[in-house]
Structures are given as C-alpha cells and as structure tokens.
Amino acid sequence: MNESTNPTPPMVTRPQAGILGLGAMGTVMAAQLALQDEWDLHFFNRSPRPRIQLKLPNGRWFEKAIHCLIEPAPVALDWLIICLKEHHYAQARHWFEALIGPHTRVVIVRNGLELTAPLLPFTTSDHLLPCLVDCPTEQIAYGSYHQLSQPVILTLPDTPLANRFRDVLPATSSSPSSIKTSSPKAGSNSPKVPP
What we know:
The protein is of the alpha/beta class.
C-alpha cells in the first residue's frame, strides 16, 4: 500500500516591523500598515499609547488597541520605521541602540535634509532608507489624529532598499489605506543616500 505523504508547507513568517514615535506621522504609518494586516507590528513611544486612533480622509475612524513599549528593550525587527522629529533624535539614542540590529532595515519618515546622518553610528548606510512624506495630518486630541488627504505619498530614493520597502507596502488603490510611493524628480529636494 502506497502512503502518500504531504510535504510540510514552508513556514511563512510575517515581517516584524517597529514604529518608533506615535505622533502624527507614526500614527498614520501605523494605521496604514495595520490595515494591510501583513505585518507583525511593534510600537515604541516615549509616553504610553494604549491605541492607534486615526480619522481617515473618508470620515471613518481607524482604532486599534496596541501594546506600546515606553522603555527601550531589544526587539528583533526586520524593519524599523522611525517617525520622530529631528529635535527628538538626541533623546532617542537609547531606542536606536535597542531596536537597530545588524539586519534591521531602517526607514526614516520625515521631511528635511541629511535624514540618515544621525543613524550612521547605529547601522550601515545600505540599511538606511530616507523617506520624505506628504500627508497633511492634524492632532484632534492627545494620541488622536485626522489624516486630511490620501494617499500617503512617500518619496523614496532609487535604491535596492527602497524597492524592497515598496514591495512590502500596501498596494496603491482608491482605499483610504493606500500608500503611494514616488521617486524623486530630477533637481528636487529629494532624500539623499550616503555613498
């Protein structure tokens, strides 16, 4: 008698992503990725946040209870999405030390110049992805925000790491959870990647 054996399917692991900083942009990024439901998300903030609360452009609310660490502790992450203002970086060094491992890819979501320079002491330049963001958002109350337009537009440099990040983002669509990525235009104030 022949016994058929079914091969064990390969174990599929979801990307482990952390969001550091749950202000306006951190809340928007958290909601977008949580709506996709293809990530294991971890949340880090200097003050407690029991939930993500975001009013979407269509008027609906996105709310999700979360576990948010407020003290640095090592967490193995595939991606760390940093949503901090530049003046918060000095106080965040202990977070960078705890969360950026040798294989962690780091996305810096903020507008400005030289986005990667403050993070070079913690990882190599090929693991750093500067990302300019266009997504008007206003605070409604503490920890609660209103995303005023869609989609979230992220401007990424033309690098292999940017292509990998595009591959794991939600597909662009007419839904309020879409993220549209664009490459910088020639001569624009585009994110610079260190050599």
